[in-house]
Amino acid sequence: MNDSQIAQEFLATGCCTSCPIIDLHGHYGHFSGIYMPNHDSQQMIATLDRCGVERIVSSGHTALADMVRGNQEIAEVTAAFPGRWNGYLVFNPNYPEEAAHELDLYDERKTLVGIKFHPSFHQYPINGERYKPALEFAAERHLLLLSHTWGGSAYDDVPKVAQIAEQYPEIDILCGHSFYGNWDAGIALAARMPNVYLELTAAYAVNGLIERVVEQAGEDKIVFGCDLPWFDPHYAIGCIVFAHITEQARRKILRETALRLLRPRLRTI
Amino acid sequence: MEDITYWDCNAAFGRPTAGLVKPCISTSELLAEMDWHGISAAVVHHALMVDQSPVVGNAALSEELAGQPRLIGTWAILPPQTRELAESSVFFREMAQSNIRGLWAFPEEHRYILERLVFGKFLDEVALRRIPLFVKRSIGWPAVYRLMEQYPSLTLIVTGHGPWGEDRLFRPLLEHYTNLYLDISRYELDCGIADLVASYGYKRLLLGSNFPYAPMGGVRLMLARCAISEQARAAIAGGNLTRMLGKADLS
């Protein structure tokens, strides 16, 4: 049996006191194609407690569909849970004027730590002109950028993300889903670019992938996320704590790398 | 928690043709991974059963499972019309002789329609004998709906459902067919297991990993810590599967 102390503690209690988790890929609220029993804020906080997640950073599902309504919503939801919940500002390039206004509101929304792109959902390439105002805004403030990335996508596969990573070294880019399916190219990009990190939501379910990323990109280039309220954090945690990697690598993935990235961006407790 | 015995209803070994990030070639590798995760036993199939032919793969599986009491074998089926596998009376006798306890249907890979017109009395007998039949959710929920409508007493396990929100698709099946089971290998929905158990009880959920396509660790911890009773956890972890396998009549 796996003798990892972290694994044993999670199995016994659901949490790990020596390694509270920082989750950098969360959401909030209902979403079109899925029934979610745990979509509201109190239910999500209960899940964080149950799974030993110290802090989560979310973009609202409402914001992915309607940026103006949803960014305000996630600002209010996260502000109600200081120290537990931060937000990303969703930038939808299909509405340039409203998007510019959303950037104007960033500074007053104190729980925000970065910007969220979903090029596949918004059907606009991440290296396209209309994302430029958000990228320049993020570069100026050294923000986090969490983007959906998917292998084979015309909008957010490796070459397009590589282009913005090279163009904006001031932005730390979290590649949500790790370019699902285009593993080797995604791992190579994370290994090559200091500002590119892989986040493994959905990709946890690929046997052996965590070991490959650790070996080829490095244990410092993976951050934890699980799309909550989509997925039970314990699924992702189980994949990490049972992976054939060192205890130090587990701590870095579950907490330390995310904490290092998050701390300079926090504007509230 | 330590008293619970974990059985995996959905694992495999062999060399998948398309390749995997980390395949599991042999039974010894599979057993080592089960040990790492604290999984006592597994219902398994062989990659050759899918990628080449059940004619070859079923035999390969039986050969490699000899002397492996923790690994419970399954065979794959084919339409009777092409006579590639033995006719039913011989087939079931050989299953018993080889200690094969369940069946798989791979209609996508083997290019057939999993319906009564094709399988007729063969699946009637599978249902009558309560032999579990496993299918992948990727055959499509409409196909599962048709199959259950045509064989309502069939013991069917749909594997790999979710994680992209399929409750709206499979919950009606749970309501209507008491012999329909789900493996939880990709049922990652936050609080989904607890929600399902509250609505439909715990008797038709099975621990499955889909190893080596997916790792065992995620589903192992998720089941160990989801908010259900210990009785429900023990049943999903292994009790439901052992009860199901015990009902199969291969005499």
What does this structure look like?
The complex is a heterodimer of chains A (269) and B (251). With 269 residues, chain A is α/β, with parallel strands linked by helices. Chain A has a single domain (5-9, 20-264), classed as Metal-dependent hydrolases (TIM Barrel). Chain A is 43% helix and 17% strand. Chain A has helices spanning 5-13, 41-51, 61-65, 67-79, 96-105, 119-122, 132-141, 158-167, 183-192, 209-216, 233-241, 247-262, and strands spanning 21-26, 53-58, 85-90, 112-117, 144-150, 172-180, 196-199, 222-223. The termini of chain A are far apart. The model of chain A has no long low-confidence stretch (mean pLDDT 97). Chain B is α/β, with parallel strands linked by helices and 251 residues long. Chain B has a single domain, classed as TIM Barrel (Alpha-Beta Barrel), CATH 3.20.20. Chain B is 44% helix and 15% strand. Chain B contains 11 helices and 8 strands. Chain B has helices spanning 27-37, 47-51, 54-65, 88-97, 107-110, 116-128, 141-150, 167-176, 192-200, 217-225, 230-247, and strands at 7-13, 41-46, 71-76, 100-104, 133-136, 156-159, 180-183, 205-206. Chain B has an 8-stranded parallel β-sheet, with helices on both faces. The longest helix of chain B is centred in the C-terminal third of the chain and has 18 residues, at 230-247. Chain B starts with 6 loop residues before the first strand and ends with a helix. The relative contact order of chain B is 0.16. Chains A and B meet through helix 1, helix 2, helix 10 and helix 11 of A and helix 1, helix 9 and helix 10 of B.
Report the CATH superfamily of chain B: Metal-dependent hydrolases
How many DSSP-defined strands of chain A? 8
CATH fold field value of chain A: TIM Barrel
Largest interface: A-B, 46 and 39 residues
Q: What's the CATH topology name of chain B?
A: TIM Barrel
Low-confidence stretches of chain B: none
The CATH C-level class name of chain B: Alpha Beta
> What composes the largest sheet of chain B?
8 strands, parallel
CA-CA gap between termini of chain A: 39 Å
Number of helices of chain A: 12
**Whole-number radius of gyration of chain B?**
17 Å
Count structural domains of chain B: 1
CATH class of chain A: Alpha Beta
- Counting DSSP E segments of at least 2 residues, the number of strands of chain B comes to 8
The overall pLDDT of chain B, averaged over residues, is 96
The whole-number mean of residue pLDDT values of chain A reads 97
